[in-house]
Design a protein that fits this description.
2 domains; Rossmann fold; cobalamin biosynthesis; Precorrin-6x_reduct; alpha/beta; oxidoreductase; 7 helices; six-stranded parallel β-sheet; precorrin-6A reductase activity
Length: about 250
């Protein structure tokens, strides 16, 4: 039986697995998770949790388990995992697809300050808060908070699914543990209630967290948008439907 390994942990990965099971019931699907999120939302399929041990470990797994194809459907900012997936698939002579939802695009009423990294985003905040203190909504997850700790003229509201490591939060920061989706109306109320002046966001794409971007537009708030890292070479799909077509072409 043909076997498909999906590197997941995202909403689009779950939708892809469900679509594969319907379109290709003959395929055995294995969903791999990093294991960093407690009680993740999972589709009905075989799962594994934890890392592989870099490129060599993943390549060895692909060969040992007889994996027919690899689909990298991890978060758009999981650059190292995507690079490892591409290299391991090449080493194992297995086709590899990167399934990543399209980026958000700024409209005429959006006020975005685009930054190539969190370090660059922190420098943007330093400039934007030079004249007066700013209250900032950090919506970048829990693992990349360090660049913002030294900004003395900013106070922070941090929202993430899991709590950050002790010491990663800035002194006095408000931590909110929540999982999307978040509607535009709820985000408007959230931003008003906490008197947010600025938002820092990753360009994650999709609909689950787009509410904050729409809310910022409605309230006229600036957004410091952290750009995605470049994907490694290989096939790329922006939708589940395109990924299913790719899978049909190699099976």
């Amino acid at each position: 039986m043909a076997r498909l390994l999906v590197l997941g942990g995202t909403e689009i990965a779950n939708r892809f697995v469900a679509a594969v099971r319907e379109a290709h019931p003959e395929l055995e699907v294995i969903l791999s998770l990093a294991g960093r999120t407690r009680d993740p939302r999972l589709p009905d399929c075989e799962t594994r949790s934890g890392g592989f041990g870099g490129v060599e470990g993943l390549s060895a797994y692909l060969k040992a388990e007889g994996i027919t194809a690899l689909v990298d459907a991890t978060h758009p900012y999981a650059a190292q995992i995507s690079a490892n997936a591409a290299a391991a698939a090449k080493a194992a002579s297995a086709p590899c697809l990167h399934l990543v939802r399209p980026e958000w695009v700024a409209g005429p009423d959006d006020v975005w300050h685009v930054a190539e990294s969190n370090e660059a985003a922190a420098r943007h905040l330093e400039v934007l808060s030079a004249a007066e203190p700013r209250k900032v909504f950090l919506s970048i997850g829990r693992q990349e908070l360090a660049p913002y700790k030294a900004l003395g003229n900013c106070s922070f509201v941090v929202r993430s699914v899991e709590p950050p490591e002790e010491g990663d939060l800035s002194s006095g920061a408000e931590l909110i543990l929540a999982r999307g989706p978040f509607s535009e109306a709820d985000e408007i109320a959230f931003l008003k209630d906490r008197r947010i002046d600025l938002i820092v966001s990753k360009n994650s794409g999709g609909t689950a967290t787009y509410g904050k971007i729409a809310a910022a537009r409605a309230l006229g708030l600036p957004v410091v948008m952290v750009e995605r890292p470049a994907l490694p070479g290989g096939d790329v799909a922006g939708t589940v439907e395109t990924a299913i077509s790719w899978l049909s072409g190699i099976s």
